[in-house]
Amino acid sequence: MGKDVLTGIHFLSGNHACVEGAIAAGCRFYAGYPITPSNEIAERMSARLPQVGGIYIQMEDELGSMAALVGASWAGAKPMTATSGPGFSLMQENLGLAAMTETPCVVVNVQRGSPSTGLPTAVGQADVMQARWGSHGDYEIIAIAPSSPQECFDFTIKAFNLAETWRVPVVVLSDECVAHVSERVLIPPKEEIKVVNRKRPTLPPEKFLPFKAGKDLVPEMAVAGEGYRIHVTGLTHNEKGYPDLSAKTHNKLVRRLVDKIRKNADKIWEYEEFMTEDAEVVLVTFGISTRVCRTVVKWARKEGLKIGMLRLIVVWPFPEKRIIELAERIKAFVCVEINLGQTFFEVERVVKDRCKVFLFPNAGGEVHDPEKVLAELKQII
Q1: What's the DSSP call for residue 4?
Q2: 286, 379, 372: which is closest to 332 by C-alpha?
Q3: Percent of the chain having pLDDT more than 90?
Q4: Cβ distance 290 to 317 under 8 Å?
Q5: Of 97, 280, 303, 345, whose CB has the highest number of CB atoms within 10 Å?
């Protein structure tokens, strides 16, 4: 049996670091279908999971991959898949099933230039809105965006912990540059890695209601084979899990699915601030664009420009409270993202008329040029 935590210092790509983070978090099931630029995740998983007693399955397509995750989770596994662009689109129906059935699982989306086949081997960040709204209906999920191989390791562990805590699918919004850059990754000893497991039933089978939530709005989760009677359906269901197609039951269920994230958002939000204390203009960014923006802020400060950065770690739920707090005292936000305005429209919605909001977009294929971003900032100022 191989090591489940490869403690020590390693030189890893973002994709490979993601695999090691997943295994360290307790992932023992992977179902996926090959697609550039996420393929290295499947390749390494196919070698590593058998070493730690896990199961790797190459599915016939992404629809089946996502369905397999739902089944594996209800069998007690911590499951993961990885994909990109068109594959993420194909997963949306069963991602909605996972949201409706409150099934913890992790989906890594290594973003590329899009839409459609787009740029299969080049960077993009245009799946932000799809990560939040890709399936139909009202629901909430969580999305987290790494900017380095080290964060691919750390944030994949976070993704599993968030999925298990809130019983939701969690999307790791990686991108081609983060996935393929290779850097130093420090993997701590196993005992130092925080691993969260889903809440288990505290009542005997005859009294247990599989969809009855506690004060945090998250139900305990029984798994198949433990003697609990479980009915899992994408239909509107009551606390027993059985279909109940009344408006009253639907309203109660869907509101709870949404509220368990919205009302606990302050426990989920995570962001990084860089030189925002006295900033007059704040860059809003995430993923690989964070690295560009950090350089821009440093250059701007050397020229006496009061520029700061708000980097989204957890992209969804969106950190509205902090955006509003900053908007009350700064002159402008500038959104730097490899798309044509997906976080920009969110910032604009939240800010309203408190300050100005600008966009420095990039449709995909390459990261921003920091010199051009700085020049744009000077024009804005």
Answers
A1: S
A2: 379
A3: 97
A4: no
A5: 97
Mean pLDDT, contiguous 10-residue spans, the chain (381 residues): 89 98 98 98 98 98 98 97 98 98 98 96 98 97 98 98 98 98 98 97 95 96 92 97 97 98 97 98 98 98 97 98 98 98 97 96 97 94 86
Retrieve residue 351's tokens: 């800010």
CATH number for the domain running over 273-380? 3.40.50.920
Residue 272 has φ and ψ, to the nearest 5°, of: -120, 135
DSSP 127: T
Spans of all domains in the chain: 8-192, 273-380
CATH 3.40.50.970 fits 8-192, yes or no: yes
- The phi and psi torsions of 366 (rounded to 5 degrees) equal -160, 160
From CA 285, how far away is CA 262, in angstroms rounded?
A: 22
- Report the Cα 131 to chain-centroid distance in Å: 8
The closest of 355, 354, 339, 346 to 281, measured between CA atoms, is: 355
Whether the CB-CB separation of 61 and 88 falls below 8 Å is answered with no
What number of other Cβ atoms are within 10 A of residue 280's Cβ?
14
